[in-house]
Structure formats: C-alpha cells, structure tokens
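Lab meeting prep.
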Amino acid sequence: MEGDYQQGVVYKNAAYIVHIVPIAYIWAPYRDKPRRFYFGAYFVSVLTMRRTFRIIFLLFVVVTGFSFQQPAKDDTNSRLKAVFIYNFSKYVEWPDSYKEGNFVITVCGGSQNLVTELKTITNSKTLGAQRYEIRSVPDLASVSRTNILFVAGSADVTMSEVMGKMKGKSTLLVTEKTGMTKQGAAINFVVVDNKQKFELNQANAEKNNLKVGNDLIKLSIPVK
C-alpha cells in the first residue's frame, strides 16, 4: 500500500513537471513573439522535457526502485555460505565420472534462503561443460548422487549416518557443526572473530578422490 502511494506521488509530480513547468520556462523569453511561434516552441519544449524526464525517471527507478517494493529479509549468513559453497566447486577437482551431467549441489535440512541464494549465484553459470543444479532435500534418505552435499546444523542426522550414505562416493561433504571435520567432513563452516570461515580436512577430501586446490587450502583453517 505504501509503495503504491509513493509511486502515485512520483507519477503525479512527473505530470506536473512535464505539463506545467514548460509553460514557465518558455513564457518569459517568448512572450513578445507571435502566438504561433509560442505554441511551436511550447510543443518542442514539452517533447524535449518529456524525453529528458523519462531518462531521469528511469535513473530514479534504478537507484531507488526497491522503495516501491517491500524489502526482502536480509540473510547475510546464507548469502556468505552460498558464495563459499559456489567457490568450493571451482577449487576442488572431481573424478572424470563426476564431470558428466549436471554439477549437483545438494542442501540437506538447510534453510530455504540458502537454497535460494545458491540458485541465484549459479544461475546461467557452468563449470566446464556442466550446468549447476541446486537440490533441496528434507532428509538424508532423499540424497542421491551429488558433487557437493551440505548438511545443515539443523538436519536431523548423525555423522555416522552421513558417512554411511556417502561411502564410496566422490562427494565433497560440507557441514557446520563443531568437530565435524574430525568425523569425516571435508569442510566445516565456523565463525572466528565474527567472521565466516571454514575448516578443511584435506585427507577426508582425498579419501573421496577429490583434489583440493592450493588457493582453497590457503584460505582454509587446516584440520587433521
């Protein structure tokens, strides 16, 4: 309702600018001219100002367009994790058999915000010849073959169940609970000094035939 009112005010003011202001602009310099000259000048002035106004209005909408909509709830935590997970895909090498079909990222038990952020980030992007596919599953039983599996802290599963499900699969396992990299996870999200970081157990990744790039290793908190 408030957005509609604001937009109505903008259009009302716009109409005033387009139709009334030109009269004030052209009257002074042309008041001594013939009437036909006045109306011609007025007509050209209106067209010119309308075009100028359209440009100004479009710039206004670009800069302040969100004021016409209800602001989306900000979820910086989900956005940061989505960026991290997306970049994991670029700095880890999978076996050739996992380079066929789509590159699948599965979120198990996580918030819908994280899934949405992942879909936004990977939209229209590819990894080599693979298109990104983001899946959201409610439980471990629904997980199928996937390149990356993110198990949310809220997921109702044990680490032993996760490891049993992923046994023999070249899946990068990402978690967000304390001590998970010592129980089989390759990467675990942690917060250090109010900053989002991640632990890396390179040995766990290598057990699943995954090769971690040096750049990712340098950014991580190594865990053995």
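Slide two material, second protein:
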Amino acid sequence: MSKFTDASALGAGFVPLRLADRSLAIRAAAVALGIVFLTLASWTQVPMYPVPMTLQTFAVLAVGALYGARMGALTIVAWLAIALVGAPVLSEFKFGPAVFVGPTAGYLVGFAIAGFIVGRLAELGWTRNVATSLATMVVGEIIIMGLGTAWLAHLIGVEKAVQFGFAPFVIGDTLKIGLAAIGATGLSHVFGRK
C-alpha cells in the first residue's frame, strides 16, 4: 500500500479531536456543538461577487476533518434531520421537507457524503500537511458541487445548473477549501501531539 492509503503507517486512525475514544457524553456534546457550528456557519453571509457566500460548505468540510468519518457524517445528518423536521438551521434560515426535494437537495445529500469521505481521509492522515489536506477538501467539494449541480441539472437543465448552481460559487468555495485545509492541518498538528 502507498503511504497515502496505509492507515497503519499513520497510527490507528487519526482525527484531531479523537472522538471515537471519548465517552458517549463527550460524543453527544460534540455532535451538539457541531450542529451549532454548522448552523451558525450556514447563517453567516460574506459579501462576494457574483453571489453572497455562506460558510456552510466550510463547516461541512471542517466537521468531517475534525470529527472523522462516522462522527462527522452523524453530525451532518443530525443537522440535516433537524432542518427536515422544521428548525431553520440551513442557509437563509431554510427548513422543512421541501428543501430536501427542491433545487438544493443535491448539495444537502452531498454534505453528508462529503463529511464522511473527508473524515475518512483525515483518519488516513490526509490532513496532516497542507498539500494532502487541500486535496482532501477538494475531494469533499467535488462531491458537494457534483451532486448539487447534477440534481439541479435534473430540474433545470445542465447549462442553467452550471450557470446558477456551480459557476457563481467557484471563487468563494475555493477560498473555503483553502481555509478548511489550513485549519485542519493546523489542528492536526496541535491535537496530534501526544
């Protein structure tokens, strides 16, 4: 196996917060804090051109990298479930079943999958340096944007999906990928010390 896929070369699973080793109470608190973080990031708008940017995608990537595959995906799915049952925790304070069949449904599904994949890559040590951390975040972003744009294309056609659901977000998402990669690498070094 290569040094990028052999988890034993990196130790038995590495995630900065090491939640798998914590008590049920600590894990539950981490999920709750993760939901709050995802919610606040979703509500936070940063003025950008051509569309305002939220920190929602950044938070999804960060939760995956910091919590690991299972806990990251669990936290993201719990956050989405809260939105489904009526809490306005998504961007623009959206909520309810309609959000999960509307234009943003593909992105929402992508969040959970990306959180799991980014978390798994973090467990394999891919967030220990900036280059592989950046690759990890790009993989997560491709999952989110790929599923989101594909679902949107199903609803409005490929050309309009790329025009309205992909292209306007390239600049902002590139910045979020870089921020998530640097943050995950830094936290890997801080929490990775024994």
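Talking points for slide two:
Strands lie at 45-46, 53-54.
The first helix runs from residue 24 to 43.
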